[in-house]
Amino acid sequence: GNYAYATNPFGANFKTCKPGANCAQLQIFTTTNPAAIPSPVNFLIPTSSPPYVLGSGGQAAGQTIFYKDGYLYLGLTKTASGPEFNIIDVRDPLHPKWIGGYSIGNTINQIYVRGGFAYVASDDKSRELIILDVHDPSNPFFVSSFDPSGTLGHETGQSVYAVGDALYVGMGAAGGFPELYVLNIAHAGVPTLLGSYVDGSTLLRIFADNTLAFLLASTVHQFQILNISDLAAIKGYAQPVSLPGAGAALDCEGSSFYAASNNGTQGNLAIISPGP
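Above: the chain sequence. Below: its structure as tokens.
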């Protein structure tokens, strides 16, 4: 509609600060008139009432967000207390309301919600993927998790994307282990491995269809396209695209991708479209 929702990563002392631009995990912007956007609604997850989210020094800051059907699924950096996974009711966007949460115990890097389940990529090195039941937004609960065989304590979950019954999970650079895993989630309680791919870099964002996967990596050919028609033998599909600096964000619209990167002194935006 006429609203934009943004996570705020400012690392305030959430025990003492008052809601504002430097003390809020969520900001809601009214975009009815894009030429004159007013000051946003600054939403601070409650600190003195449930869920008692507290933190300082970078704890409990906004990290990732997913919107679906009037609810925001907000992931935080590791908190000092309270849940890192939070569900915010924004059916009235100017009056957001916290309604449910779940404690992960680690930073949440990305969330993807479909079919009443939330797929959470986190820094938990023994549960890089955590699946929560969110059919009742006021009572999310644990369903299952995934830790790749042989990598206990080694990898971190970074990104997640679903197509049909296939879930694509991107990991941090894994030193020879795969960074991309494809899981069958036809039964969310028992995710099973369909395929994997060694990339050599942290996978920050993933888009996919039935035959191709599009990856944004932190370094090493940041934008890549993989052939996933045979999940047992995933391979490169096209020449990778190198971006100036480290990969940062990726979005898709129509047949074009919009890839952001950061070289340490400035941000860059690349538009990547099919060749002739």
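The radius of gyration is 19 Å.
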